[in-house]
Amino acid sequence: MVDIAFQGSSAAEPITGSRARTLVKLRVTDNAFHHITRAAAIGVLVILGGVIFSLFTGAWPALQTFGLSFVTEQRWNPVTEKFGALAPIYGTIVTSFIAMLIAVPLGLLITLFLTELCPMWLRRPIGIAIELLAGIPSIIYGIWGLFVFAPFLQRTLQPALIDLFGPIPILSDLFAGPPYGIGILTAGLILAIMVLPFITSVSRDVFEAVPPVLKEAAYGLGCTTYEVVRHVVLPYTRVGVIGGVMLALGRALGETMAVTFVIGNAHRVSPSLLAPGTTISATIANEFTEAVGDLYTSSLIALGLILFVITFIVLAAARYMLLRIERRIG
Amino acid sequence: MAVMDLYARRRLRNRIVLFLSFGATGIGLGWLAIILGTLLFEGASGLSLKVFTETTPPPGADGGLLNPIVGSLIMTTLAVFIGTPVGILAGTYMAEYGRFSRITHVVRFINDILLSAPSIVVGLFIYEVMVAPMGHFSGLAGSVALAVLVIPVVVRTTEDMLALVPKELREAASALGMPLAYVIGKVSYRAARAGIITGVLLAIARISGETAPLLFTALNHQFFADFPYLNAPMASLPVVIFQFALSPYHEWQSLAWTGALIITMTVLALSIIARTLASSRKTS
Predict the structure, then answer these.
(1) Which of A13, A305, B78, B240 is 20 to 30 A from A285, alpha carbon to alpha carbon?
(2) Taking 80 as the threshold, does the pLDDT of residue B2 lie above it?
(3) A106 contacts in B (CB within 8 Å)?
């Protein structure tokens, strides 16, 4: 287009040397900028490739030594160099499960409040306040959990749970042992608060994208607010809400510092939720700098690889679902 | 009669759910208030000039947080300088040159995953590619690890903000004979400036509280790192908080609370500024 513009004018006035040079310079700059930006975009892919490749090479010695038993073996013994990842994997999954069990209903109820009940002028401040929960660094949750929340649970909730479920056969195993304060349950509860904003903000976005005419039609039929949300809004936004939940799950699985403070760092699989345990990220954070011997380091990197693969799958599924709802809402 | 029963039951159920939703919002807001309140209560008592002028103390002695604060500032600044250009350029490609190309779709998908990927994995990655080959922990490795976290945030906001620039502006510039690179530099970037700055602020907010990627890249240092700073282990506020909070010494724990207060206030201030920047643009 540039050429045409200049050629048009060249009929009246021939292109001088300096103008031709300028044209060439412009074109070269444009090409260079195009290629630089593309290289940067590809750089994002290179980072991902680098992460996967470096984790894989780092984890290789451990994977080669232990094979599949790495994920089924519970023992984690740096002295005899026998490493099994069952306890951290179990801890990661259970803490994230507890977190989602609490955060999903809580997040959806807050979204219901923000989209249907809250007066307009209050929506923004409350929405921002809930999202600030996501802005607080995870180490703050950790220090708060260790010094404030865990002692509080030790005094109140945990003895109550032990008393309540003690006489019931199966549930008593879930809440067995002394109330330490720290442990799997505490980590799960803190994770629930941390991922709450992710669920709220995604489901708020998709709730607000529901065509008003659908809701108005339901209200016109005499539906209550709950029925409108349950039978109109939720079915319409289901994919998006699940996407938000998966996003939150991805966060919960990989969360490190907050969990490291309150999980107790015990390499064992205990049926009791009150017992100390460990997660993949907490194990790495606690032991990596102190790991002596190649096999120890390699086993910790193998843990990192497992964590990355799990979160990658969860987050990819989340993205896929959110893409689907974006396309539908447009 | 039965009809009335059904109606009453539906109304009751509605009331219960609405009540629960009030309660849930209360829990969410209450939790934020409790955390911030505890931080102020525990952290403000230790806040004094000494915190900003003295280095971290040995157990049982008095001291401040000067070296971790300086370390955090250095590493955050460096990470922003490394990460921001890459992020802005990649975002530019996705919004301007290759908006509909296949690379853009793939990069967007991967970038969104990197945005939420566990930061401790980034620490392991930088350990493998920088710390292990160099043979020692360093502030530089810490900065690079943080830069890896900056990039996805900046890519995402830059792309979003450039996509919001009306295409008529670009067309007008192109019609004057400007090559695309100049259209982007002189028109798109100017129109999206507030949004792009927002992205950088959000990225700074994100990394200033990050601990996990620094644990085994920059490690920690009791005093100022030896010269040259960047090639030696470097203290940072989050890592010092981690170490001090888990220690049995009272002075260390109270310094940890003070550090936690400083970080939280910084991060919240950054995200509120970023929000106001973003929203003032939307309404104008």
Answers:
(1) B78
(2) no
(3) 24, 27-28
| Partner A contacted by B7 (CB < 8 A) | no
Q: What per-residue string of b and e applies to A63-73 under the rule 16 or more CB within 10 Å gives b?
A: bebbeeebeee
Residues paired with residue A277 on neighbouring β-strands, in sequence order: A264
What CA–CA distance (Å, rounded) separates A304 from B122?
10
Task: Return the closest-CA partner of residue A278 out of A5, A86, A132.
Answer: A86
- In whole angstroms, give the CA distance from residue B269 to residue A132: 10
User: Cβ–Cβ of B242/A139 closer than 8 Å?
Assistant: yes
Q: In DSSP terms, which residues pair with A77 in a beta bridge?
A: A82
Question: What pLDDT does B237 receive?
Answer: 92
Instruction: Round the average pLDDT of chain A to a whole number and report it.
Output: 88
Mean pLDDT of the region B48-77:
86
CB contact under 8 A, A2 and B179: yes
CA–CA distance from B29 to each of A106, A150, B33, B267 (Å)?
12, 20, 6, 18
User: Of B277, B106, B89, B100, nearest to B184 (Cα)?
Assistant: B89
Cα B16 from Cα B24, distance rounded (Å): 12
CA distance A296 to B150: 30
Give the pLDDT band of residue A247 (cuts 50, 70, 90): very high
Residue B93 exposure: Cα atoms within 13 Å on the Cβ side: 28
Q: Read off the pTM.
A: 0.90
Nearest residue to A249 (alpha-carbon basis) of A40, A91, A34, A96 = A96
Question: Is A262:A273 a contact under the CB 8 Å cutoff?
Answer: no
Contact of A168 with chain B, judged by CB distance below 8 Å, is answered with: no
Give yes or no for A165 touching B (CB within 8 A): no
How much is the ipTM here?
0.89
Rounded to 5 degrees, what angle do the CA atoms B91, B97, B103 make? 70
Q: Closest Cα partner for B200 from B139, B158, B145? A: B158
Closest CA to B214 of B117, B148, B115, B267: B148
